[in-house]
Amino acid sequence: MKRADVPRRMVVPSGRSTRRATTTVGAIAALASLVLTGCTAATDAAHRASPAAQTEATTAGEKLTYAQDLRISDAEQHLITVCMRKRGFRYREAKPLSLEESRPVGYVQDDVDWARSHGYGSRITAKEDRARLRNPNIAYHKSLSRSRQKAFDIAMDGGRDAVLLKSPTPSGGTITKQSGGCARQAEKMLYGDPAAWFRSDVAVRNLRPLYVGKLLGDEEFKSAVAAWSRCMNKAGHPFPDPDAARQSTREPSAQQTRAEEARTFANETRIAVADATCARSVSLRSIGERREAHYVGELTKKYGHALDAHLRMQRHALTVAERTVPART
User: Fold this and answer.
1) Contact between residue 55 and residue 311 where contact means Cβ atoms under 8 Å apart
2) CA-to-CA distance for 134 and 272, rounded, in angstroms?
3) For the region Disordered, what residue ranges are annotated (predicted)?
């Protein structure tokens, strides 16, 4: 979300867009968006499990599934909506995608049925982009007088006088965020302490640069990628790694006719299905998850507190979300 384009935090449920994004070129950048660990990691068994079974797994120490994480985002949007309306402003929750469409697409995608229906998700991304551009909250904000726009911004996140949270990243940078208004109130209801949540979230979501190089050089993981590549070559798709396969389906953004778009999507789907089939046949996902967990484990001595706090607050947020909004279908 670009701050200059929309009122703060208005358009997309928090975290939604960035968790799907896989548009960065290059192996290191692609691996940085691996969907192998974290709140979006979920096995096929987890996808099929009942909500009660998923909750039981979570409370036993499992990381949240993408469906559970999405429910928290939906709850945050709902809480902001209720708060903004109480303060005299119109606000609509954004839920353009189904649960299936919201599934993250990372470096390893081994769900053949999903690939057969959605390829690498280009049509889903286009659908989400259209919804973002047509978001009624943007038009509503623009329709307000200057003074009401200022009041809207203050109601949303506290405006210029909001608390400015700052937190260092594991790699040495600093991330800041305004914390006030309805956005802060929603986070307080979900996580308990918005500042503590921000600190743990910044730490956990920025750990990958610390181990991605090791994972890229891991012999077992490289061997699995090589096996995937041999499988793809036999299927008529000679690519060295999953990122190269995905990038080959990306077309220029020029306007396409309906027939051209259909041909482009058919090609994307063929490659995505082969990709998922080969990933499954060589157990690329499970190997990647296991090796990633190994390198994350090496960081727990320094960042274990942040990881534990992050999961603990996520669990609390999920409990609140389950009382607040239905699961997305």
Assistant:
1) no
2) 29
3) 237-259
Sorted by sequence, the CB contacts under 8 Å of residue 184 that are 6+ apart come out as: 157, 158, 162, 163, 194
Residue 33 CA to its chain's centroid (Å) = 9
Q: Is 146 exposed, middle or buried (0-12, 13-18, 19+ CB in 10 A)?
A: exposed
Q: Is residue 7 part of a domain?
A: no
Domain assignment present for 247: yes
pLDDT at 252: 62
Question: What is the block-wise mean pLDDT of the chain (329 residues), using blocks of 10 residues?
Answer: 33 32 33 40 40 39 86 96 97 89 90 96 93 92 96 94 93 93 97 96 93 92 97 97 94 76 94 98 95 92 93 97 95
Closest among 95, 69, 96, 76 to 157, alpha carbons compared: 76
3-state SS class at 50: coil
User: To which residue do tokens 């979230």 refer?
Assistant: 201
Whole-prediction pTM = 0.79
Q: CA-CA distance, 187 to 196, in Å (whole number)? A: 11
The confidence score (pLDDT) of residue 44 equals: 41
Q: How many domains does the chain have?
A: 1
Tell whether 8 is covered by a domain.
no
d(CA 89, CA 93): 13
Q: Is residue 2 part of a domain?
A: no
3-state secondary structure of 68: helix
Helix-strand-coil split of the chain, %, nearest 5: 60, 5, 35
d(CA 34, CA 207): 12
Strands in the chain per DSSP E:
163-168, 174-179
User: For the chain, what's the residue count?
Assistant: 329
By CB neighbour count within 10 A (0-12 exposed, 13-18 middle, 19+ buried), where does 15 fall? middle
